């Protein structure tokens, strides 16, 4: 034996045989298939956040609440399996309520489609759920909007909703809590015209808390009629100041006698007119003005804002007409009358009026007389009576004539 061990060829032969035996002991795996021999990997712990929770129950007849939307799943085990599960997330977390009864209960949150070689921890691991009978009921939808949604001077009338009824499905206790079903309209700006907006429908309890129910349809069309708060009122002419001397204001006319005002309803009710103010102190001839229409407090707008005003004037002139003879009537045949004052039996008269009437006047256009009927002999003060053209004013130098009445000589 020692001789064989000393033989180098023997040693080489033995080494060859051992190498062949060792080669044959290595497993021959096909690609993609696990081998008969696995090499242990390092342990690893990973947490997968926000894993959705599936609820398994009869959705046609029941409503379930209390199941969390997501959970955290902690995985512990071989590094490659943990990494694969975290990356693919090909497992499912669920709550099985197939055999659950109506009412409140505590149920486990479980997982499936996960490697048995992994240790799994779910947080939370249980859910306190409420299982209720599913109920569907029809409700009327009321539109709601803020009172300041419309511009000042406009009013919003009662809104309409299409469709005005919705089907609401939920747990019976939730359906029983529904006090209001509202579609709220919001606007980024103030309204001046009728609008139609899509609005979400909300179911609310008596304290205006939103209820967790299913509403069909979820949105409705709300139409809000908007109209101006306006009315027509007369435009009054207010005269300011006095015309210059010698100017008579015959007439003031407006191009339009009415204006439309825009105001809140309470102001609108109290407003009966608007006005234009005409300054007469600067008018000495026929004039056409454009003046602002003046509004009262609280009135937001007036139309028209400006109005044309026509002012018709007459310029007056004055002059004195002299030496108008004073006529005498009522003298008896055997008496005669003599003037003491004015001694010449003539007087002056001052006339005023439109220039076109006053300018051509002469003594012959006036008749001045005194009536001495029934007077005795002697001196008398007798009123002078004047007959003058129309549309003028006149004034005598004196109102009475002094006369003397005497019997004629035989």
Could you please describe the fold and organization of this structure?
By secondary structure, the protein is mainly β. It has 4 domains: 43-133, RNA Polymerase Alpha Subunit, Chain A, domain 2 (Beta Complex); 141-228, RNA Polymerase Alpha Subunit, Chain A, domain 2, CATH 2.170.120.40; 230-315, RNA Polymerase Alpha Subunit, Chain A, domain 2, CATH 2.170.120; 318-407, RNA Polymerase Alpha Subunit, Chain A, domain 2 (Beta Complex). It has 6 helices and 31 strands. It has helices spanning 2-6, 8-25, 79-88, 172-177, 265-270, 355-358, and strands at 43-56, 62-65, 70-78, 92-96, 103-108, 110-112, 119-123, 126-140, 142-145, 154-156, 160-162, 165-171, 180-185, 195-204, 214-216, 219-224, 226-228, 230-240, 247-254, 258-262, 274-279, 287-292, 301-303, 306-329, 335-341, 346-354, 367-371, 378-383, 385-387, 393-396, 400-407. The strands form 7 sheets. Strands 19, 22, 24, 26, 27, 29 and 30 form a 7-stranded mixed sheet that branches. Strands 6-4-1-3-7 form a 5-stranded mixed sheet. The longest helix is centred in the first third of the chain and has 18 residues, at 8-25. The chain is rod-shaped and about 200 Å long. The chain starts with a helix and ends with a strand. Residues 22-39 have low confidence and may be disordered.
| Major sheet summary line | 7 strands, mixed
CATH fold-level label of the largest domain: RNA Polymerase Alpha Subunit, Chain A, domain 2
Number of helices: 6
Determine the mean pLDDT.
87
Calculate Rg over CA atoms: 58 Å
Strand content: over 45%
The CATH level-2 architecture of the largest domain is identified as: Beta Complex
Low-confidence stretches: 22-39
Shape: rod-shaped
CATH secondary-structure class of the largest domain = Mainly Beta
Number of domains: 4
Helix content: 10-25%
Distance between the termini: 221 Å
